[in-house]
Amino acid sequence: MTAQHGQDELEAQFAQWRQYVERRRELQASDADELEDHLRGSVDALVAAGLSADEAFLVAVKRMGSLDELSREFAREHSERLWKQLVLTGADQDPAGGGSRRDLWALVACAAGAAVSVKLPALFGLDFDQDGSFYARNFSLFALTWLAGFLAWRRQAGRTMIAALAALFVLGAVAANVYPLGEESQSLVITSIHLPIALWLVVGLAYVSEEWRSSRRRMDFIRFTGEWFVYFVLIALGGGVLTAFTAGTFNAIGMDPEVFISQWLLPCGAVAAVVVAGWLVEAKQSVVENIAPVLTRLFTPLFTAVLLAFLAAVLVTSTGIDVEREALILFNLLLVVVLGLMLYTMSARDPLAPPGVFDRLQLALVASALAVDVLVLLEIIGRISEYGTTPNKTAALGENIILLVNLAGSAWLLLKLVRRRTPFEALERWQTGYLPVFAAWAWAVVLVFPPLFDYA
Amino acid sequence: MKVAKDLVAASAVPMVLGILAEEASYGYAILKRINELSGGELDWTEGLLYPLLHRLERLGHVESSWQTVTGERRRKYYRITGTGLAELAEQRRQWDTVVDTLKGVWHGMGELGPLPGLTCEAGA
Known about the structure:
The complex is a heterodimer. By secondary structure, chain A is mainly alpha-helical. Chain A folds into 3 domains: 91 residues, no CATH class; 183 residues, no CATH class; 167 residues, no CATH class. Chain A contains 17 helices and no strands. Chain B is of the alpha+beta class. Chain B has one domain: Arc Repressor Mutant, subunit A (Orthogonal Bundle), CATH 1.10.10.10. Chain B has 5 helices and 3 strands, in the order αβααββαα. In chain B, strands 1-3-2 form a 3-stranded antiparallel beta sheet. In chain B, strand 2 and strand 3 form a beta hairpin. In chain B, helix 1 packs across helix 4. Chain B is globular. The interface between A and B is medium-sized, with 28 and 24 residues. Chain B: Keywords: DNA-binding. Chain B: This is DNA-binding PadR family transcriptional regulator.
């Protein structure tokens, strides 16, 4: 065997090893390059110590440890690449592959539980049509309790965590139902908006479970939220088609399915879809994964353009925002969408990537949103000083201040990121650290506002 | 002797940062250096080192670039940054405290007598 022959054989072995590595989704091409260099380093050292080429290769590969272990460590560090990581959700403890089947049963149980729970009040004479305010306040409780339960089950949450989750849901139920809120009261509307937000963050607690301190896991939850939303919309679209066919076909044979649709199909379907969407994100992440970055890349420039055009229009006409309440809510929603877009983009970004054009674009988006937020704030403060406080205006004021701080922090960190002064990590930390602020505010609105404003 | 896993994990960051503070380096060389410095007692795996390097990079403590030094392969070199140096200083302070405390504890034990005597008493 000539030296040249040995060298060729060694190269073939490297190529084969490389193929194995590249099959791992946890490892990217640059990681494979880095590891290959490492392997070559060990082989060279072993050859220098007197081993033959193929002996050296075997020993070096053996030393590197099993690829499973290596990939697991990479997955832990790079959860954004593979945040679906089955490894981290406990499914790997089930080598027989029965994990997904048990998941499916748990899903069916939770979705059915949600559907049943939303119909339970009907036994006590609460009707969807007549007691709309009851369902408006409680809808999130019927759906999100089960989603949180499913996630806590999947994470094998400890007793303390389960107790904490249960306590928070009970608190939500109490807040939604003990205050004497009139059908027409502003507080009812505010509770119906804020309770789902507060409870969604409780779902987040179930999602991150024991690792609630980990910034990376919180980022995973932000990612989960975005993907869940995409799945939920898809299910809702399908549900709409189903509803249309149900109505059409039964009407055609002279039966009126309207009661069935409004009393059963819609409410049960909606709460079950909340759970099913959560399960889909957990089980089928890789399907939507590639859509997320595309969506954000598509809409970030568009939203930036709209905001800039709006700001330009404000400057040209030199008027502030002097608008009706509905329009003010629209602006708030716009800011929330911008925040969502920013969070979703961050969750899909490779934290090691150098700052690029897209980060600049995002900075422009955040800066223009910041300007809009200031305009909205001025308008709200003007209204409060003119007409006095109401639950609505105070809630809007608080939200805008919270958003202002968040956007200002994000803008500052994005600026530093673009100028390469700070790593992306700082931005990630800022956003994940801000989640408790949103939670605290949503809970404060639900719990404190109604008595504070005399149940107005 | 095998150093316990927790201890290896806890000391990994200051070691890597310390080595990179001397000069920019790449994975294999860092691993070799650790092995040399510890007299072969510390044998890190690749599964420990590379994810750690990537984490330090994400935190901004090191930066990496692919470089070709003449006569060698193209390699991913890691270089410590300003925040990395600050982190190293902070870790050093913490480790100094730990090491000094341990020294004090063990010095005190030395006066009490040899270790086996202690275990006998405890067992009795």
